Amino acid sequence: MPSDRIKLLKFLTHFAVGGTERQFVYAVKGLDRSRFDVRVGCLRRIGPFMKDVQALNVPISDYPTTSMYSFRTLRRQLKFVRDIRRESIQIVHAYGFYPNLFAVLPAALGTNCVTIASVRDIGVFTDRHRMRSVTQAMACRMADCVIANSNAVRDWLSKQGLGRHDIRVVPNGIAIPHRSGRSADFPIRSELKIDPKTPLIAVVGRLARTKGLEFFLQSAAALAPRFPSARFLIVGGACVEPEYQTELENQATALNLAGRVIFTGQRTDVPQIMREIDISVVPSLSESCSNSLLESMAHGLPVVATRVGGNPEIIDDGLNGILIPVQDSGAMTQAITALLESPELGRHLGGSAREKVIREYTIERLLRRTEDVYVSLLDRRRRSKVGQPKH
Q1: Cα torsion at 79, 81, 83, 87 (round to 10°)?
Q2: Nearest alpha carbon to residue 298 among 145, 135, 180
Q3: pLDDT value for 119
Q4: Sequential DSSP letters for 327-367
Q5: What are the backbone angles phi and psi of residue 239, rounded to the nearest 5°?
Q6: Residue 33 contacts by C-beta under 8 Å, 6 or more apart in sequence?
Q7: Positive or negative torsion for Cα 204, 209, 174, 23
Q8: Per 3-state DSSP, what percentage of the chain is helix, strand, and coil (rounded to 5)?
Q9: Cβ contacts of residue 18 below 8 Å, gap of 6+?
Q10: Which of 11, 74, 158, 317 registers the highest number of CB atoms within 10 A of its CB?
Q11: Distance of CA 101 to CAs 15, 69, 108, 142, 268, Å?
């Protein structure tokens, strides 16, 4: 490898299953190694994606931290600064709230490297968490650039007082599955004892309150009498809010959906699940750039999604999916009914959806856009140094 490669440190909280973590792995794996010498930093070496990063044979440094506001964390940050200096890191790119706070501030104040903050979710920054918004804005202001994964996030950041800051939009990218017809075998349906001809409607994603799953259950209850054979899947784990799954299971029982709604828990075979479902639903209360939405569209599925965050940037309503108002189970029911009653409509929307993802949301586009940001920021830093007066 050439010795003049750009030394890049990408920083993450941990390696749990989630959209940000998946995008992180895509980037670490796919960045051009002839141009970038990639290293990984984290707060905790835990999570299923840890093995994926280890398999890439990149240096991994961890800075175990349980609170952002403690003397122990300050000592970890000082060690982080020393490590950056020793390794001559040129770019630090943090992914998300805790990495922004831990990595961007000390790197910006204590080193000469380019610092990049990433904001990938606005749902966690509610009025109940006002301090999060304030501290994140502080970290973003210290960064040379902020990467948002949708125009919605960029606009939200502008409203937080960062309108004049360098904010660049780099949407998520996903792996495009091979297009295949209806499978002759149905391992997921067989496992769950669902007939291959049964309409299967699913939500795929982690179980969190911002995902609006209670409205999906309300819609399922309204659909059940009209489509007695239909089944409803909720695919994902509730590692952050385990009590939320219990609440949803109790709600399903109260709505007489026992046997009609299946909670699969965390799965590693989501692509196969996508091949066996008929309709994908994204009932989120907040989204930035939904991986589940993109993956559903890439599989050619008709999608019903709430009109929040970055969803309207991905879905052209009525052309490659259906957008509905947030927290509106009635509109959700109406949209799903239209798709169940008109398979041709579903095939048309799904085909158009797949075309859009292939055109605009591939991993290759994610990587090239990210690399362009890195190179442009380094060039800007070099130009600014050239323009400085000599003492």
Answers
A1: -170
A2: 180
A3: 93
A4: T-HHHHHHHHHHHHH-HHHHHHHHHHHHHHHHHH-BHHHHH
A5: -65, -30
A6: 1, 5
A7: negative
A8: 45, 15, 35
A9: 206
A10: 11
A11: 18, 10, 11, 10, 31
From 236, 230, 228, select the one nearest 211 (Cα to Cα): 236
Alpha carbon distance 32, 369 (integer Å): 12
Q: Which two tokens stand for residue 215?
A: 């409205």
Angle, to 10 degrees, between the axis of helix 291-298 and the axis of helix 19-30?
70
Identify which of 89, 6, 13, 16 has the alpha carbon closest to the alpha carbon of residue 49.
16
Question: Two tokens at 80?
Answer: 């982080």
The residues, ordered by sequence, that sit 6+ positions from 34 with a Cβ below 8 Å of its Cβ are 1, 2, 5
Domains of the chain plus CATH, in order, are 6-173+362-386 (3.40.50.2000), 187-360 (3.40.50.2000)
User: What averages of pLDDT result for each successive group of 10 residues across the chain (391 residues)?
Assistant: 84 90 95 96 94 95 88 94 97 95 94 94 60 81 95 91 90 89 79 95 93 97 97 90 92 95 92 95 94 96 97 97 98 98 97 97 97 96 73 48
The two three-digit tokens of residue 143, written as one number: 């960064």
What is the model's pLDDT at position 268? 86
pLDDT at 28: 96
Bridge partners of 263, per DSSP, are 234
Helix (H, G, I), strand (E, B) or coil at 171: coil
Per-residue model confidence (pLDDT) at position 195: 94
One-letter amino acid at 291 equals N
In single-letter form, the type of residue at position 279 comes to I
